TrEMBL record:
GO terms for molecular function: glycosyltransferase activity. It comes from Deinococcus ficus. The keyword Transferase applies. InterPro entries: Glyco_trans_1 (IPR001296), Glyco_trans_4-like_N (IPR028098). Pfam families: Glyco_transf_4, Glycos_transf_1. Residues 169-323 form the Glycosyl transferase family domain. This is Glycosyl transferase family 1.
């Protein structure tokens, strides 16, 4: 099977790493094709060309059981759409289009009419469109009635037990790219305005185009003693930050089903996020976290006030988030869902006499 995805930092790459630990890749002899990463424009063009050439060659010579394409919106959808039409339209290889973009419906609305027609045709051409949340699945069916949609929620590996969050100096964490749709500036403004217990800290694990503006705001508000910009961290260091955090905040304007929130749920952190995309499917406001309208800094400030200054509420929200992750978001459950889907579309994985998937795992 071909697994076609970005190698750039972010949720899609983390999703693949988590699934690899379940045995799904070994069972299906997955070969990864990387179409995009964080490199230069020339490097990204070369990556896509090489991935496209490999896909065509595999379809001509080995005929994979399935092609599973992972897409965000905008340029990512264009790249995966081209590969989907090659695999399914030309070579008749079953193709799954897996949408990870919370802003997909907004992307569709922004397309001119001819491009909208191509988006609809691509969604209908896929043997299955997989979405991370029921909300995104409903959006796909509004855009392209007749598209075959399956919801397969994200998953994560769970900690053995939830963290204890009742310490007097809460540690707050943001994980993600420092871009407008993640709105880290709103979090900084809310941090400046909220009532912070002595010793409370806020750390940003990530980097991006808003960093300079954030640094200026930190200095303007005198937040140097409580805020730290960590820059890009490797996955192990991000996990270590999550292991030490008490509160995870993600004030996004668009999301699918963000892996950062799931990682917080898997540890029992108190979560603060927004009413967008698939996030309300993850978090029940007031029960397993706090949700506020996107861009509403006063509401975000009030939510921070609550989780920072009420240790009992912090612990209650974190434990409820952990229980919800146990019930719905264990990565093994996600792997089982995908395994069933692959069997529906292509039959069982072909096994070698030794009992492993034919072709082995490739990197």
């Amino acid at each position: 099977m071909l697994w076609v995805a970005t190698g750039a930092r972010g949720g899609i790459h983390g999703y693949g790493r988590a699934l690899e630990t379940t045995g799904l890749f070994a069972d299906w002899g997955v070969e990864r094709l990387v179409t995009h990463d964080d490199g230069s424009r020339r490097r990204r063009a070369a990556l896509f060309a090489r991935a496209a050439g490999t896909l065509v060659w595999r379809c001509l010579t080995a005929r994979p059981a399935l092609v599973h394409l992972h897409s965000a919106a905008y340029g990512s959808f264009v790249r995966k759409g081209l590969l989907l039409w090659a695999a399914r339209g030309v070579f008749r290889v079953p193709a799954v289009l897996h949408l990870h973009a919370g802003e997909f419906e907004d992307f569709y609305r922004r397309c001119p009419a001819p491009a909208q027609s191509l988006v609809r045709a691509t969604l209908r051409r896929a043997d299955r469109v997989v979405t991370l949340s029921p909300a995104l699945g409903a959006a796909v069916q509004r855009i392209a009635p007749g598209a075959r949609v399956t919801v397969a929620e994200n998953g994560v590996r769970l900690a053995p037990e939830p963290r204890v969050l009742a310490g007097p100096a809460p540690r707050v964490l943001f994980v993600g790219v420092l871009i407008e749709r993640k709105d880290p500036l709103a979090l900084l403004r809310a941090w400046a305005a909220c009532l912070r217990p002595p010793g409370a800290t806020l750390r940003f694990a990530g980097d991006g185009p808003l960093r300079a503006e954030m640094e200026a705001l930190i200095h303007a508000e005198g937040l140097q003693g409580s805020v730290e910009l960590l820059g890009w961290l490797d996955p192990q260091d991000v996990a270590a930050q999550l292991d030490r955090a008490d509160v995870l905040v993600l004030p996004s304007h668009f999301e699918g089903q963000p892996l950062a929130l799931l990682e917080g749920m898997a540890r029992g952190l108190a979560l603060v996020s927004t009413w967008v995309g698939g996030i309300p499917d993850l978090i029940e406001d007031g029960v397993s976290g706090r949700l506020v309208p996107p861009g509403d800094t006063p509401a975000l400030t009030a939510a921070l006030d609550e989780v920072l200054n009420d240790p009992d509420a912090r612990q209650r929200l974190g434990q409820a988030a952990y229980a919800r992750a146990q019930a719905r978001y264990d990565i093994r459950r996600t792997a089982e869902r995908l395994h069933d889907l692959y069997r529906q579309l292509s039959g069982p994985p072909a096994l070698t006499p030794g009992g492993t998937a034919a072709g082995g795992a490739h990197d």
